[in-house]
Amino acid sequence: MPTLFCDNISFAYATGRGELRGITLRCEPGSYTLFVGPSGAGKSTLFRLLTRLEEPDSGVIYFQDRPLAEYPPTLLRRKVLLLPQSPTLFPGSVRETLLLPWGFARNNGKTPPDDAQLTAWMERLRLGDVPLKEHAVNLSVGQQQRLCLIRCLLLEPAALLMDEPTSALDAESRDIVLGIAAEMQANNGTTILQIDHSGYVPSFPHIRYALDNGTLERTYG
Question: Using CA atoms, how far apart are residues 163 and 82, in angstroms rounded to an integer?
Answer without folding.
Answer: 8
